[in-house]
UniProtKB/TrEMBL annotation:
PROSITE patterns cross-referenced by the UniProt entry: PUA
Domain PUA residues, every copy: 90-180
Predominant cellular place of this UniProt entry's protein: cytoplasm
GO CC terms, sorted: cytosol
Entry protein name: Translation machinery-associated protein 20
Entry similarity comment: Belongs to the TMA20 family.
Keywords: Cytoplasm
UniProt cross-references to InterPro entries, sorted A to Z: MCT-1/Tma20, Pre-PUA, PUA, PUA-like_sf, PUA_eIF2d-like, Uncharacterised_CHP00451
Summary of the function given for this chain in its UniProt record: Involved in translation.
Length: 189
């Protein structure tokens, strides 16, 4: 979605009612962020919206990108927010071989997740998913890379982790926001 560099469109202030709705949606989608929501989206600060290409809305505070949303898709955090609060999001891990493809903007394929270096959450009680449960298609997930400390991508699952373990092929995440893409490089100042 953000493979190419682009410039930000118009920036406008968000009404307080819309800011409250965004805040509520963030807390509903990412409940582990609730104790830190005042740090991320303070009630007293003015939230701005920046229009991006392909009908993407970017919510920011001053010149700091916070969350983005494509039309009516789930609201997703910017990777810099993910790096600050990595434990607050469901996550999966790719093997070393998939890193260069993900950072090149390619579709994340299931074999990169089901190989020995990859890791999927599941009913085995791992802390990676939603409290040890399988993730469903349509869930927002953070992608970490084997041997790396920070997340490299965030996107929406195309199939459940249970199906990934069974089929072991196909696209896992088609589009998302990754380190080095246009959204990562976007200058809001």
């Amino acid at each position: 979605m953000f493979k190419k560099d682009f410039t930000a469109g118009s920036k406008s202030k968000v009404k307080s009612s819309v800011a409250r709705a965004v805040r509520a949606k963030v807390m509903e989608t990412y409940p582990k962020l609730e104790p830190h929501i005042e740090e991320i989206l303070p009630k007293k600060e003015q939230l701005d919206i920046v229009k991006l290409p392909d009908r993407v809305s970017l919510y920011c505070l001053n010149d700091k990108a916070l969350f983005w949303q494509h039309m009516d898709d789930p609201i997703m955090p910017h990777l810099k927010i993910v790096h600050q609060y990595p434990w607050a999001f469901p996550r999966i891990r790719i093997d070393r071989g998939a890193i260069r493809f993900v950072l090149g903007g390619a579709t994340l394929m299931v074999p990169g997740l089901t190989s020995p270096g990859g890791r999927l959450p599941g009913a085995d009680g791992t802390e990676w998913g939603k409290d040890g449960k399988d993730l469903e298609a349509g869930d927002v997930v953070v992608v970490e890379a084997e041997g790396k400390e920070t997340a490299c991508m965030i996107g929406v699952l195309k199939m459940s982790t249970k199906d990934m373990k069974e089929k072991k092929k196909g696209p896992g995440i088609e589009e998302g926001h990754y380190v080095g893409d246009g959204l990562w490089k976007l200058d809001l100042s």
